[in-house]
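Fill in residues.
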């Protein structure tokens, strides 16, 4: 990895004769924890990169008009989303029930809001409580845990195999780095009952991302110096310094170190062959409690019944999602927002929607159901001032490979766009003829 700090670049003073790269070494087994490098990168931390809802800019303020809508289909999973208030009521009601079978009966009406993994767990609880009214859910999971450990190891091994196959197509240097991480991961998934050394999916992915960042920084420096593009050295120095000293998810002035490094790639080496991109995408398929019943059982076997029952639904709570990820330049405007479940929001992270659709091919059909539900809410008067939302949403989804039909939406654009805020006049040129010419801002409650 190249260690480029502003003070070192300044020593070059943009001198045309400065041709030698400035280098330092980094412990490949180290992970940023706070502002310190820790070599036991598989120990638990709270500062690791969050691979779902990135702690970046993540500004969803202009999407708050969607919050509180009920009976909305999740465009990513097809379930019926819950509001935060509904989840609060569910939690309260469950706390008043001490019979396991009655809890299952209470949850029955929310089956349509359960994600696939949670629904499978729910049906198993339903089966078990028919035989024992008072059996604890944690006991049920503990009974299944030994078998689930073996099955989870098989699921993880399949992904490791896919990574190794993909690594055959990259450079020998990078292949060795990737295979070393995979070998370490294989060893760790076989170690049981030791949190300090067990496999951690998030850390494994972070280490791959760090390798990706190092490669981009290295290639950027070589290109800048080779082609005497000294104007780019200050950008490289900032990205390099922050990469060395901060967690990848640490946002500063709207940018994380990872953001800065990806910006470098796009700006200075657009033809760069990112050999780690596909590797990281495969690694994200490693099972989690949101995607694998086995992982769910292992994670929650030792939790309280209260936590377990709430977990069956709390990942189905609606969250505001950028259609085009904000970390990839997506706008903080209405046309770039949808409501999606917490679980799918986290799972997607900043993946392009087209790439996420490969993992969830039902997204186009579910997106149509989402739009239909939004229109129903408009008819009920729930989105006053945002009658234009279906039109602009249709355009954004189309740009991202999803076509939805709003032909039955009976509010014409000349009516819908009367309430468009003035700040958005130039945002939607296709509808400009329908937008009234006004100078006073509208007072629309979000």
């Amino acid at each position: 990895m190249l260690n480029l700090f502003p003070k070192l670049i300044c020593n070059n003073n943009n001198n045309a004769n400065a041709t030698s790269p400035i280098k330092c070494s980094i412990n490949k087994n180290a992970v940023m924890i706070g502002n310190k490098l820790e070599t036991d990168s598989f120990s638990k931390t709270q500062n690791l990169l969050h691979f779902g809802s990135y702690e970046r800019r993540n500004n969803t303020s202009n999407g708050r008009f969607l919050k509180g809508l009920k009976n909305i289909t999740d465009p990513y999973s097809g379930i019926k989303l819950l509001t935060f208030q509904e989840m609060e009521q569910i939690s309260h009601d469950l706390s008043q029930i001490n019979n396991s079978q009655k809890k299952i009966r209470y949850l029955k009406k929310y089956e349509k809001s359960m994600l696939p993994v949670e629904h499978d767990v729910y049906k198993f609880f339903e089966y078990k409580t028919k035989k024992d009214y008072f059996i604890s859910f944690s006991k049920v999971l503990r009974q299944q845990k030994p078998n689930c450990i073996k099955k989870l190891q098989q699921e993880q091994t399949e992904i490791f195999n896919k990574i190794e196959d993909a690594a055959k197509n990259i450079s020998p240097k990078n292949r060795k780095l990737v295979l070393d991480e995979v070998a370490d991961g294989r060893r760790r998934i076989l170690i049981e009952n030791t949190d300090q050394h067990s496999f951690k999916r998030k850390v494994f992915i972070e280490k791959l991302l760090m390798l990706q960042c190092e490669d981009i920084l290295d290639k950027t420096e070589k290109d800048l110096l080779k082609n005497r593009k000294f104007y780019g050295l200050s950008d490289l120095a900032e990205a390099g310094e922050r990469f060395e000293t901060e967690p990848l998810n640490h946002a500063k002035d709207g940018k994380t170190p990872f953001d800065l490094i990806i910006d470098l790639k796009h700006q200075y080496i657009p033809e760069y062959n990112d050999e780690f991109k596909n590797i990281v995408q495969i690694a994200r398929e490693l099972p989690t409690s949101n995607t694998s019943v086995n992982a769910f059982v292992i994670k929650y076997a030792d939790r309280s019944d209260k936590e377990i029952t709430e977990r069956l639904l709390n990942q189905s709570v609606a969250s505001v999602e950028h259609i085009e990820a904000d970390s990839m330049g997506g706008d903080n405007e209405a046309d770039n927002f949808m409501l999606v479940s917490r679980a799918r929001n986290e799972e997607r992270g900043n993946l392009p929607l087209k790439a996420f659709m490969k993992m969830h091919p039902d997204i186009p059909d579910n997106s149509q159901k989402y739009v239909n539900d939004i229109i129903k809410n408009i008819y009920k008067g729930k989105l006053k001032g945002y009658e234009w939302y279906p039109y602009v949403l249709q355009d954004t989804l189309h740009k991202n490979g999803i076509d939805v039909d709003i032909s039955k939406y009976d509010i014409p654009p000349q009516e819908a766009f009367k309430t468009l805020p003035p700040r958005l006049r130039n945002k939607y040129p296709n509808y400009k003829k329908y937008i009234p010419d006004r100078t006073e801002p509208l007072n629309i409650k979000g």
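The chain has two domains: 1-39+82-315, 334-434.
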